[in-house]
């Protein structure tokens, strides 16, 4: 009888131990999942390149995107910034349009990093800077995808990236060839306007509503119409602009419009590099 009791007690101990071990394992797995979710951040770096544009984006799927690379003289600034983040690959490289203050550093970026996809608008433009970019692309055996409205880059459950402009094939102003990029991560959206002016804004048929907008053309009055801003209805506006620049950017009427609309404005000439982090439900600005 005593032996039977001992056997029963032993079996109960084994069962209790197994239950506790499984419970601990499930808790640990749950913690791992929580950590994975918490680390899935969208990080947008508006690099301070003076009177120019360069935006490096760490996507929540662990891929990277670079929108523009500043002037020719900004190439080392952009390359060093990405290197310091310990990246050697740019999955999606976008040159919004062929002006030097947007694509000046692209050739060095292409030479330095492993580039997987390149998007640029189809436009005829004869400058040494543009030729340097095209030569860098050719030397690496890469191809350029046409950046135009309707181009989808990523379309997953929680992350979507689209090019929503330019809508047409010919413009008088080169600025209107700008590739306009929209990133949506869960409930939050970001809109990157390049140098798109009012004409291009009016042609966009996609949903432009976004929480954060990179203001077009460094805050020039030729961009960001009242009507367009109302459609976007952002909480935050980022202006990439040089201190005491010769163009008077950002123009006073744009700043007044943003203030009147109760939009929080951040400027690289005042704050330096601006970093925005989002888990898709919240936004944190550094």
Number of strands: 17
Q: How many domains is the backbone divided into?
A: 2
Strand coverage percent: 15-25%
Globally, the shape reads globular
- Identify the CATH architecture of the largest domain: 4-Layer Sandwich
Which topology of the largest domain does CATH recognise?
Metallo-beta-lactamase, Chain A
**Computed structural class:** alpha/beta
Helix-residue proportion: 25-40%
Oligomer: single chain
Low-confidence stretches: 12-38
Give the CATH superfamily of the largest domain.
Ribonuclease Z/Hydroxyacylglutathione hydrolase-like
CATH class of the largest domain: Alpha Beta
Average pLDDT value?
90
Order of helices and strands: HEEEHEEHHEEHEEEEEHEHEHEHEE
Number of helices: 9
Gyration radius (Cα, Å) is 24 Å
């Amino acid at each position: 009888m005593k032996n039977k009791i001992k056997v029963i007690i032993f079996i109960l101990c084994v069962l209790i131990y197994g239950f506790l071990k499984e419970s601990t394992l499930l808790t640990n797995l749950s913690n791992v999942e929580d950590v994975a979710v918490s680390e899935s951040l969208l990080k947008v770096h508006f690099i301070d390149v003076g009177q120019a544009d360069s935006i490096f984006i760490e996507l929540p799927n662990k891929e990277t995107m670079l929108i523009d690379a500043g002037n020719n003289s900004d190439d080392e600034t952009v390359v060093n910034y990405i290197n310091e983040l310990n990246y050697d690959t740019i999955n999606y490289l976008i040159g919004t349009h062929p002006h030097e203050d947007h694509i000046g550093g692209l050739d060095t970026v292409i030479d330095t990093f492993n580039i997987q996809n390149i998007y640029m608008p189809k436009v005829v433009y004869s400058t040494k800077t543009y030729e340097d970019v095209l030569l860098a692309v050719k030397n690496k055996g890469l191809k350029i995808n046409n950046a135009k409205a309707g181009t989808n880059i990523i379309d997953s459950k929680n992350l979507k990236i689209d090019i929503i402009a330019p809508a047409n094939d010919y413009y008088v102003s080169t600025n209107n060839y700008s590739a306009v990029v929209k990133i949506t991560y869960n409930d939050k959206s970001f809109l990157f306007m390049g140098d798109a002016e009012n004409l291009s804004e009016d042609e966009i048929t996609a949903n432009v509503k976004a929480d954060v907008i990179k203001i077009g053309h460094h805050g020039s009055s030729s961009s960001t119409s009242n009507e367009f801003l109302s459609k976007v209805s952002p909480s935050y506006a980022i202006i990439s602009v040089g201190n005491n620049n010769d163009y008077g950017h950002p123009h006073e009427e744009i700043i007044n419009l943003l203030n009147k609309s109760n939009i929080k404005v951040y400027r690289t000439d005042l704050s330096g590099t601006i970093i925005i982090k989002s888990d898709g439900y919240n936004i944190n600005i550094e």
